[in-house]
Amino acid sequence: MAFSLVTTTALVIGVNIAPAQAADSAAGAATSASADVARILAANPGSRQLNASDVELEPGVIMSVPESRTADFGIQAGTCTYKYLCLWSGANWTGYKLSLTRCGWTYLQNYAWPNGGDWRDKTTSLVNNQTTGVISHFYDSDIYGNQLYLGPQHSYGYRANLAYDTAAVGGSWDERMDDILVC
Ligand SMILES: [Ca+2]
């Protein structure tokens, strides 16, 4: 209804449309992030919003919307909060982020993706910023429930593009990760 109203009145108020669109464009990134946050909240019952970009899915598990970046800043301190293991859906720490700080097993099937599905087979880059020397172990769960070992990552350490990392079971790590022994 809103669109048809705009269409039928466009000729009348046309002179006012351009400034309004310019204002919307300036706030575009924030609007997109809030819509993303809303989708994450809806897809993960029981989750709660922490701030403009972060949603706590459950204690120790935080999902963040993609950061607005116009350039590759490379790896920076603070990209992954200290004492967390962070996963990104894109290469070079882009896309959605999942931050994990609980030891023991994390099963990515428990965390829903905004547009359907879940965090399995999504991870393409990561940072391990847990306390120094802590090692995380990553697995690909096959259709029979067997855990195929991708490999380890010690802290502090990172992998910028899992497509270039060879898994212990063969192939690359990229978009395969399902189960994680965080620490
Ligand atoms: Ca998998």
Task: Explain the overall architecture.
With 183 residues, the chain is α+β, with helices and mostly antiparallel strands. It has a single domain, classed as Gamma-B Crystallin, domain 1. Helices cover 22% and strands 30% of the residues. The strands form two sheets. The chain has a seven-stranded antiparallel sheet with strand order 1-2-3-5-4-7-10, with helices on one face. Strands 6-11-8-9 form a four-stranded antiparallel sheet, with no helix packed on it. A hairpin with a 5-residue loop joins strand 8 and strand 9. The protein is globular. The termini are far apart. The structure holds calcium ion (CA). The site of calcium ion has 6 residues, from strand 8.
List its traits:
single chain, 183 residues, alpha+beta, Gamma-B Crystallin, domain 1, seven-stranded antiparallel β-sheet, four-stranded antiparallel β-sheet, 2 helices, disordered N terminus, binds calcium ion
Provide the structure class: alpha+beta
- For this structure, what is the CATH homologous superfamily? Crystallins
Provide the CATH top-level class. Answer: Mainly Beta
Can you tell me the residue ranges where pLDDT is under 50 for at least 5 consecutive residues?
A: 1-27
Q: Provide the gyration radius in Å.
A: 20 Å
- Tell me the series of helices and strands, N- to C-terminal: HHEEEEEEEEEEE
How would you summarize the topology of this molecule?
Blueprint: H1 2-26, H2 28-43, E1 48-49, E2 54-58, E3 61-64, E4 84-90, E5 94-100, E6 105-107, E7 125-129, E8 135-141, E9 147-154, E10 157-159, E11 179-181
Antiparallel strand pairs: 1-2, 2-3, 3-5, 4-5, 4-7, 6-11, 7-10, 8-9, 8-11
The structure holds calcium ion.
